[in-house]
Amino acid sequence: MSGNRTFTMIKPDAVQSGHIGNILAKINEAGFRIVAMKMTKLSTEKAGAFYAVHKERPFYGELVDFMSSGPIVAAILEKDNAVEDFRTLIGATDPAKAAPGTIRALYARNVGENAVHGSDSDENAAIEGLFFFSELERF
Ligand code: IDP
Ligand code: MG
Description:
Alpha-Beta Plaits; 4 strands; about 140 residues; about 40% helix; binds inosine-5'-diphosphate; alpha+beta; binds magnesium ion
């Protein structure tokens, strides 16, 4: 059975470009409820830990540098079938391949600086939500 929560970040490129409000509006219009949210900045250590699963990928260093380059907005989102529906809403990793109207098609700069993160499984959604939010910060 699919779960009802996912985790997202509005990445440093989209925060810097002033797209927080536009992206939250898309999330809202798509029927997600915000369970938790904060603006914060990842240290290189924290970014490295968050993306540890990609350690062996050639772009890992670039990814860690980018994700710690400026503030991000982290959030837990709730909706039926949250993980899959949110991946559909954000579109493909590479904005050049993302479907029209998706958040990455609208706001991403390139395959690395791609505006938003979205969890890839219920298990990772739970792990990633706990990485940022305590029980007292989840509503
Ligand atoms: P996803 O975010 O769509 O799940 P992943 O393959 O999990 O994509 O990669 C994690 C993040 O790493 C991407 O969102 C993007 O920021 C970055 N990334 C992925 N592929 C590349 C690449 O080929 N070059 C640079 N950065 C990349
Ligand atoms: Mg991923």
